[in-house]
Amino acid sequence: MRTGFLIATAVVALVSAPAIAEEFISESDLQVMDTNKDGVVSKAEYVAFMDMAFDALDDNGNGGLTAADFDVLLTPAEFSAMDANGDGTVSRAEFDLQTAKDFDAADKSGTGTLK
Fold it and tell me: Within a domain: residue 58?
């Protein structure tokens, strides 16, 4: 399923070095995220896609992601980096914070968009 692949790609990009996140996401992935088809992915479009990724990964719908929810997508160190408070669960707030940081780091042009 293409959406599942995109979610996996987005999550890996999320936890990869932020400076390379933009290059890690392929042109076709960016086209899917570009919901208004203006040729760029705005922060709002990126956040909306990552919200969908969070919901898809949260199998039990409890609003938190454990290492098991990430399955083989993350190493233990990558998961720990996202789990800011160290409670063994990545909350929606922790996930959203990481998403925002990584988008800002990937936006090398400072335009608020990825392309």
Answer: yes
